[in-house]
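Please decode residue identities from the backbone states below.
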């Protein structure tokens, strides 16, 4: 009779079975898929080459501009809301709480429609500065600020209270201590989650297509979708999706490095 397996042996057997199951699923998918039809619909080399260089010089450039402007606006607004959330003045806290719950709860698409349609109807004759670029910055910034405010608030509260007390004992006012001592330390803490927010905004920039854009204002999704409609082929959408990875994968790598560095510093 063979002896009973040890815990280590059972763990190895379990891992081996999981690897075998994973490999079996992959093989089943590979064998079952109609690769010829997939290639015909998603991997037309000639069609993919026609996208360049416009997909980089126009679509990717616009995507980066939309994302960066939305992120910067969201960061500034998020910091203000976070300070209101921590304020000793009750109405400030109420306004900040309502803003956070409202803009975190609503789909980003509704915010874009509000900025692009409701605001011009409410204020006839007024134009948002920057045209489409300004609308996208406001739409993304409003949504991002709600998430960034909570992230920044958590970062400020993570700074030891002794830092504020030490600054006040040296004669700093509360506002100067916050600006010079607390907020810089809080931002070092929240850099990883803020970078994650940047990755999410990069993908949310695809909502710009609901604002109605010109050819020179198209971002990656709109660019790929338009050409896919013209050619009745999904290759442009696949190439546009791969262009997103050119930015999101390096950013995700940076986030992991920052999180690892933060873990070592603890």
């Amino acid at each position: 009779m063979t002896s009973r397996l040890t815990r280590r042996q059972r763990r190895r057997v379990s891992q081996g079975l999981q690897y075998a199951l994973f490999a079996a699923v992959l093989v089943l998918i590979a064998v079952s898929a109609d690769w010829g039809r997939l290639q015909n619909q998603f991997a037309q080399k000639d069609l993919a080459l026609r996208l360049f260089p416009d997909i980089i010089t126009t679509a990717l450039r616009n995507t980066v501009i939309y994302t960066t402007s939305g992120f910067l606006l969201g960061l500034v607004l998020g910091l203000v809301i976070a300070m209101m959330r921590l304020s000793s003045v009750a109405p400030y806290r109420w306004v900040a709480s309502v803003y956070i719950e409202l803009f975190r709860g609503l789909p980003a698409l509704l915010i874009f429609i509000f900025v692009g349609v409701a605001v011009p109807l409410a204020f006839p004759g007024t134009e948002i500065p920057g045209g489409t670029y300004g609308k996208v910055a406001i739409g993304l910034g409003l949504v991002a600020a709600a998430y960034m405010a909570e992230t920044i608030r958590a970062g400020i509260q993570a700074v030891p209270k002794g830092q504020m007390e030490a600054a006040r004992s040296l004669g700093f006012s509360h506002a100067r201590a916050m600006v010079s001592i607390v907020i810089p330390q809080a931002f070092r803490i929240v850099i990883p989650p803020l970078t994650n927010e940047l990755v999410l905004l990069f993908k949310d920039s695809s909502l710009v297509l609901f604002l109605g854009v010109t050819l020179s204002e198209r971002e990656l999704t709109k660019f790929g979708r338009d050409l896919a409609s013209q050619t009745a082929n999904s290759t442009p959408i696949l190439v546009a999706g791969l262009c997103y990875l050119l930015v999101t994968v390096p950013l995700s790598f940076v986030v992991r490095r920052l999180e690892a560095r933060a873990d070592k510093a603890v």
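Observation: The longest helix spans residues 54-85.
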